[in-house]
Automatic annotation (TrEMBL), chain A:
Gene3D superfamilies per record: ABC transporter involved in vitamin B12 uptake, BtuC
Coiled-coil stretches: none
Membrane spanning stretches: 21-40, 77-97, 133-152, 159-179, 209-225, 251-277, 289-313, 319-338
Compartments, as annotated in UniProt: Cell membrane
Keywords: Cell membrane, Membrane, Transmembrane, Transmembrane helix, Transport
Designated name of the protein: Iron complex transport system permease protein
GO biological process: siderophore-iron import into cell
UniProt xrefs under InterPro entries: ABC_BtuC-like, ABC_transptr_permease_BtuC
Membrane topology of this protein: Multi-pass membrane protein
Family statement drawn from the similarity comment of this UniProt entry: Belongs to the binding-protein-dependent transport system permease family. FecCD subfamily.
Single GO MF descriptor: transmembrane transporter activity
TrEMBL record, chain B:
UniProt keyword list: ATP-binding, Cell membrane, Ion transport, Iron, Iron transport, Membrane, Nucleotide-binding, Transport
Keyword hit for Zinc-finger: no
One GO term (biological process): iron ion transport
Lineage of the organism: Bacteria, Bacillati, Actinomycetota, Actinomycetes, Propionibacteriales
Organism: Kribbella kalugense
Name of the protein in question: Iron complex transport system ATP-binding protein
Signal peptide region: none
Length: 342, 269
C-alpha cells in the first residue's frame, strides 16, 4: 500500500470531531444555547427577542416578559433536562446491551413507566407529580425486565430485544388506553401528563427531574470508561478486572431511572433516546467519554426542535413534541432494524 | 507455583464439562493446553483466569482462592486474552492498548507516568508502536493479534493466558504471534499458558504440554513426553507417525490417511 493510500484511509475513518472533539462539542453546546434563546420567543403569543433578553436579566415588568418566565422558560429548561436524560439513557443502554437498537422506548421502559405513572395518577387523584417518578421508575424497570426475560434465549440478540420490546410496549400502550377509557372523568390530568409534550409544564416539573439528571448524569459520565471496557466483550472486560455483571446492572438501573424521570415529567417522548446516541456515535466515535455528553447535547437539540416545531407549525394549536419525534424517529428506527437484520 | 486448579468441577449451567481437574501452570514457562474439540481445554483456561467459577474445588493464585480475590486485584496479576475479540469501532492501536491499564486506574484520575510507560513498553515489545495511530480494523490478522497481546502486556502482569491466539490466522501470522509469545517468555520472563489447536505448533513452542480429553487431563509433560503415536491415537482418534522435526528436533505428528494406515500396520507388522 502506498503512503497516500494509507493517509487517505486514515482521513476517511477519523471523523472531524474525533480530531477536534472539544471544538465540535463546544459548537454543539453554543448551538443549543442559541436555539434555546430563540425557542423562548416562539409560541402562541408574539414575543420579541428584546422581551426575552429583558426577561432573562430579570426585568419582568411587562406582560411579554412574564410570559417568557412563566411559560416559555420552564419548557426550554425541560427540553434540556428531558433531552439529556433520554439521550444519555439511550447511550448507556446501547453501550451496555451492545445493541444499536437499544433505547428506553425500544426496551419498553417508556411505556412501562407511562403505564405505572398513569395507574398512580388515577388511583390517587391529585397526587403530586413528584410521586410519579418512583412509580414510573418501577414500571420502567418491570417493563425492561419483562422484555429481557421474553427475549432471552441463550443470550438476547438485538433484533429479538427490539421486536419483543415493540410487543411489550404495545401491551403497555393498550393498558394505558384501557385506563383512559375506564376512567373518562379522571383522565384529564393524566392525559395532559401523558401526551409526550412540554406543553403546560411549570417550574415544578423542572425541579422534579433536575435532581435525577444532576446526580445520575455525572455518575454515568465518571463511569464512561467502564462502558468502553464492557464494549470489549464480557470475558476481556472481566479479565481487565471489571465486575461485569455488577457494573452492567448498575448502569442499566441508572439508565432506566433517567428515562423514568423524563417520562414522569414529559410523558412518553419517543426516539430521542434512540437517535441522539446514534448521531453522537457518528460524529464523535464510540468512546463514551465523548459519546455520552455529545448524545446529551444532540438530545437537547432534538427536543428543542421538536418542541418548537410543535408550537410553531400551527399556532395557537400545539402539536405534542412526542408526535413530532415519532414522525421523525419511526422511519429511522425501521432503517436501523433493516440494517441490523442483515 | 503461582497458578493452579485444585480438583475443580467445571460446568456451564447444568452441563458438567470437567469433573475433577487438577493442574499447575509452571512458572516462567510456555505451557500449552491441547485436546480435541469439547475436551474442556478452553473451559479450563477460563477457570484458571477466574472467568468461570468452579462448581467444586478451587483455583489458587499466589496461595489464595482466585474467586475470593477482588477481580481488579487479579487483573494486576494475571492477563487473559479470550478467543473472540471485538475491537470498538474505528479505535486506534494506541487507544486499544490503553485498555490494558484499566485495572490500574480509578475513574477520575488522569493517567500516571507508570501508565504511560507501560503502554509505551507494551507497544515497543510487540512492535506495534509504529502502528499506534492506525485503526485496528485496518491491520492484518497478525498485526491485530499483536495489538491485543500488547493490551494484555500493558496490564503489567507476569502471567499471561491466551485462548487459541492463532485460530483463524494464516500460517505466517500464527508464527508471528507464537514467536512473539516465545520472545516474551525468553526475554521478559513471562509465564505463558495458552490453548492451541495444532499439535505441531504446540510441540514447537511449548515447554510444558497439558493433554486433555473429555474434561480430563490425560497426560502432561514436555512435548517429547506427550506427543507419542499412542497418545495421539487415544486422544485425537487418529493414527499418526511421530518423527523428529528435521530442524528443531521436536516431535512432529503426521496424521495418516486410511491407505497409509494399512501400509503402516503391514510395515510394523
Amino acid at each position: 500500500m502506498t503512503s497516500t493510500a494509507i493517509v487517505a484511509q486514515r482521513v476517511r475513518s477519523t471523523t472531524l470531531a474525533q480530531r477536534h472533539p472539544r471544538l465540535l462539542m463546544g459548537s454543539l453546546g453554543v448551538l443549543a444555547v442559541l436555539l434555546s434563546f430563540y425557542s423562548l420567543s416562539v409560541g402562541a403569543t408574539d414575543v420579541s427577542m428584546a422581551d426575552v433578553l429583558k426577561a432573562i436579566v430579570g426585568d419582568t415588568t411587562d406582560q411579554a416578559a412574564q410570559i417568557v418566565v412563566q411559560f416559555q422558560l420552564p419548557r426550554v429548561l425541560l427540553a434540556w433536562l428531558v433531552g439529556i436524560a433520554l439521550a444519555i439513557s439511550g447511550g448507556v443502554m446501547q453501550g451496555v446491551i451492545r445493541n444499536p437498537l437499544a433505547a428506553p422506548d425500544v426496551v419498553g421502559v417508556t411505556k412501562g413507566a407511562g403505564f405505572a405513572g398513569m395507574l398512580l395518577l388515577l388511583a390517587i387523584p391529585g397526587i403530586p407529580v413528584a410521586a410519579v417518578v418512583p412509580a414510573a421508575f418501577v414500571g420502567g424497570l418491570v417493563a425492561a425486565a419483562l422484555v429481557y426475560l421474553l427475549a432471552y434465549r441463550r443470550g438476547a440478540t438485538p433484533i429479538r430485544i427490539a421486536l419483543v420490546g415493540i410487543a411489550v410496549s404495545a401491551a403497555f400502550e393498550a393498558g394505558i388506553r384501557f385506563l383512559l377509557v375506564r376512567n373518562p372523568l379522571d383522565v384529564s390530568a393524566a392525559l395532559i401528563w401523558l401526551t409526550g409534550s412540554l406543553f403546560g409544564r411549570s417550574m415544578s416539573s423542572v425541579l422534579e427531574i433536575l435532581p435525577w439528571v444532576a446526580v445520575l448524569v455525572p455518575l454515568i459520565i465518571v463511569w464512561a470508561r467502564k462502558l468502553d471496557v464492557l464494549g470489549l466483550g464480557d470475558d476481556l472486560a472481566a479479565g481487565l478486572g471489571e465486575p461485569v455483571e455488577r457494573t452492567r446492572r448498575t448502569l442499566l438501573l441508572f439508565a432506566v431511572a433517567l428515562a423514568a424521570a423524563a417520562v414522569a415529567v414529559s410523558g412518553t417522548i419517543g426516539f430521542i433516546g434512540l437517535i441522539a446516541p446514534h448521531m453522537a456515535r457518528r460524529v464523535f466515535g464510540g468512546r463514551h467519554l465523548a459519546l455520552l455528553p455529545a448524545a446529551g447535547l444532540f438530545g437537547v437539540l432534538l427536543m428543542l426542535f421538536a418542541d418548537m416545531l410543535g408550537r410553531g407549525i400551527a399556532p395557537p394549536l400545539e402539536i405534542p413534541a412526542g408526535l413530532i419525534t415519532a414522525v421523525v424517529g419511526g422511519p429511522y428506527f425501521l432503517y436501523l432494524l433493516v440494517k441490523t437484520g442483515r | 507455583m503461582r497458578l493452579q486448579a485444585q480438583g475443580v468441577q467445571l460446568a456451564y449451567d447444568q452441563r458438567v464439562v470437567a469433573q475433577d481437574l487438577t493442574l499447575t501452570i509452571p512458572d516462567g514457562k510456555v505451557s500449552v493446553l491441547i485436546g480435541p474439540n469439547g475436551s474442556g481445554k478452553s473451559t479450563a483456561l477460563r477457570a484458571l483466569a477466574r472467568l468461570l467459577p468452579p462448581a467444586k474445588g478451587s483455583v489458587i493464585l499466589d496461595g489464595k482462592s482466585i474467586q475470593d480475590t477482588p477481580t481488579k486485584e487479579v487483573a494486576r496479576l494475571l492477563a487473559i486474552l479470550p478467543q473472540v475479540l471485538v475491537a470498538p469501532e474505528s479505535i486506534s492501536v494506541e487507544d486499544l492498548v490503553w485498555f490494558g491499564r484499566h485495572p490500574h486506574r480509578t475513574s477520575l484520575k488522569t493517567p500516571s507516568t507508570a501508565d504511560k510507560e507501560a503502554v509505551e513498553w507494551a507497544m515497543q515489545v510487540t512492535s506495534t508502536a509504529e502502528l499506534r495511530h492506525q485503526h485496528v480494523d485496518q491491520l492484518s490478522g497478525g498485526q491485530r493479534q499483536r495489538v491485543w497481546i500488547a493490551l494484555c502486556l500493558a496490564q503489567g502482569t507476569d502471567l499471561i493466558l491466551l485462548d487459541e491466539p492463532t485460530t483463524y490466522l494464516d500460517v505466517a501470522y500464527q508464527l508471528e504471534v507464537l514467536d512473539l509469545l516465545h520472545q516474551l517468555n525468553q526475554e521478559q520472563g513471562k509465564t505463558v499458558a495458552m490453548v492451541l489447536h495444532d499439535f505441531n505448533m504446540a510441540a514447537e513452542y511449548a515447554d510444558h504440554v497439558f493433554v486433555m480429553k473429555s474434561g480430563e487431563l490425560v497426560t502432561q509433560g514436555t512435548p517429547e513426553d506427550v506427543f507419542t503415536c499412542d497418545i495421539i491415537r487415544d486422544v485425537f482418534g487418529v493414527e499418526s507417525k511421530v518423527v523428529p522435526h528435521p530442524v528443531s528436533g521436536k516431535p512432529m505428528c503426521i496424521p495418516l490417511r486410511a491407505g497409509l494406515r494399512a501400509q503402516l500396520s503391514v510395515a510394523t507388522g
